[in-house]
Amino acid sequence: MTHALARASDDDAAVDQAVLRLTAEFRTRLRPQVIGTVVRNSRRDLSGVPATALPELVERLARARLQSEDRSA
What we know:
This protein is mainly α.
């Protein structure tokens, strides 16, 4: 497995874990599809972030966006 492929797999796992945690946190207020979309968009928006910081930053950004979405709903 190449380094780029390994990183992509790690990123996918981090995104999947963030979706699971945030779905548990927001499940009574937002649909799972919305949560997944917000997490994936957050990941895309953080594409230039160092790999070691990515999992935490994706989850933080997605949580902030979900809280904003929840308030406006």
